Amino acid sequence: MNIVLIGPPGAGKGTQADYLVNEFNLFKVSAGDLLRKETELKTPLGQKIKSILDQGSLVSDEIIGNLIEKLILNKSYSNQIIFDGYPRNLNQAKSLDSLMKKHNQHITKVLSINVNNDIVVKRILGRQICSKCFLTFNEFFNPATDKNHKCNSIFLKKRSDDKEETVINRLKTYSSVTKPILNYYENQKLLTNIDGMNKIDQINKEIRQIIHSLNT
C-alpha cells in the first residue's frame, strides 16, 4: 500500500509518518527532507532551493517531481511508501498519479490532518529534528526524553525555515495552493479527515485503525 499524509505545516505529519514506518514496514518520502538534503550539498540547485524555502514558498513541480520519481523507481519501496507532505498542489497530485501508474503502483489512502493555525505556529516554532536518527520532537507538545529518543540531545536541531514570518507565509500558501487537492482525492474516494487537535497517541491510534482496515 501507498499512503499520502496531507496537512498544514506543523500538523504532525512527520511524527505520525515515523510511527507508521515502523509498524507497517513503510518507507517515508518527505519532499521537505529531500529538498533540505539537496541544500546541504550546497550545489547551485541546493542554494536556489534554500532561498525559496526560507521565504516560505514552494519549489517548482519539476524539481520535486524528479526527486520523487527517483525514489519510486527503487523496487525496494514498491507499494510500501508513505508520502509525508507531498503532493502540495493539484499539479503535483496529478503528476504523482501518473508516476505511480507508470511504475505499476497506486495511492491506497489519503489522510488529511486538520489543525488550527494558532496551534500550527506553536508546533513549528517548538519543532526539533534529530540530525542522527531523523525523528521529530517538539519542545512544547512532544519533548525528546531518554525514553523516546536514544541519541544525544546535541543532535536535536531546528530547521532554518522554522521562523514565525516564514510559518505565516507557509500557512497562506497551504490554504491557497494545497487545500484544493483535498477535493481531488475526495472525488477519488481516497480521502479521510483526521482531527489533528487530538493528542499524538490518539491521532496515531485512529490512523493505525484506518490503515489496518485497508488490509482486511
Task: Give a quick summary of the entry.
With 216 residues, this protein is an alpha/beta fold. It has a domain at 3-115 and 178-214: Rossmann fold, CATH 3.40.50.
CATH architectural label of the domain at 3-115 and 178-214: 3-Layer(aba) Sandwich
- Helix- and strand-based class? alpha/beta
Determine the N-to-C terminus distance: 12 Å
- What is the β-strand count? 8
Report the radius of gyration as a whole number of Å.
16 Å
What is the percent of helical residues?
40-55%
Order of helices and strands: EHEHHHEHEHEEEHHEH
Tell me what portion of residues adopts beta-strand conformation.
5-15%
Biggest sheet architecture: 5 strands, parallel
Instruction: Characterize the quaternary organization of these chains.
Output: single chain
From the 3D structure, determine the CATH topology of the domain at 3-115 and 178-214. Answer: Rossmann fold
Shape, principal axes of CA atoms: globular
Low-confidence stretches: none
Mean pLDDT value? 88
CATH superfamily of the domain at 3-115 and 178-214: P-loop containing nucleotide triphosphate hydrolases
- Tally of alpha and pi helices: 9
- Major sheet: order of its strands? 2-3-1-4-8
- Mind telling me the CATH class of the domain at 3-115 and 178-214? Alpha Beta
Description:
It is a single chain. By secondary structure, the protein is of the alpha/beta class. The protein has a domain of 150 residues: 3-Layer(aba) Sandwich (Rossmann fold), CATH 3.40.50.300. It is 49% helix and 15% strand. It contains nine helices and eight strands. A five-stranded parallel β-sheet has the order 2-3-1-4-8, with helices on both faces. 29% of the residues are buried.
